[in-house]
Amino acid sequence: MGFKNIPKLNNQKLYKHYVILRNMEIVGRISKGSRMDQIYLPKNRENFNVGSYVSIKTLEIDLTEQKIKQLKPYFYNINYIEPIKLQIISQITEIINKSIENENILITGSFLEQGFNFKDIDIIIISEKNNEKQIEKAIEDKIKIKTHIIIIDNKTLLKGLSTDPLYQMMLSRCIAKKRFIYKTKHEINYKILDLHLLKSKLLIDNFDILNGNEKYNLTRNLITISLYSSNRKVTKESVDKEIKKQLADTEEIKQNILNKTDFIRKYKALYDKLFEKIMEGIKKENKDKTNNKNASKQKSIN
Question: What is the rounded distance in angstroms from the CA atom of residue 188 to the CA atom of residue 108?
């Protein structure tokens, strides 16, 4: 990934090994050495001459220590996240808290992957109010990062977790302002699955013009629906594992180095099978709805 794709963070310059130069202060990552561990510094720096004595302290202490301590986020299936991302989350949380009353803030999506290969930050805000665009603008104006915000109330979130596989996928791996435990009943709504499945048809029709990440997202959508419709667990790990089993290695998809003929053949077969299953499910749902309606009418007559 080129540095030109890395979002600007308050005029900070990001160097190799995630080294940041800001106001003649350098922040670096400790790397493992053969005899001694080390910190790499960029050659094009001011001050910090060879032979200079320096003081080293942890980034968590230096970067808005009090704000990060006050945040105390809860991590769900997150094994590692760059410290600078914690600072970003702290700033975002502060902006949201000032903009809207909320019960919780959930950070999810590609922002939580290692590295800086994300276009925006996906955020779910649990609140009774609704002003996504204003908050998105406030965040972009303040920290120069685009966000995609969904504001929903608890009832809608619970319904989504019960019936929508994409909600399960998003919240299987996230960072939350507050601890959350949602116990929901698994309900399959085939009409919702049909709407989501339609997106994945784009890969079949537009394979040659899609980039690797777009192909991966559409493939992930297909497999997520497949697992959910079979009452199987939906997490990023389970979806990636199934993609590799059914179609191809996820890195080959992301790097766009697929064998088109072989991949499309397997993808289309899986898509057609899932489409047929969903259509049968919709027919059954409509039939059950009609039968229940007729039963209610007969009961009222009697």
Answer: 23
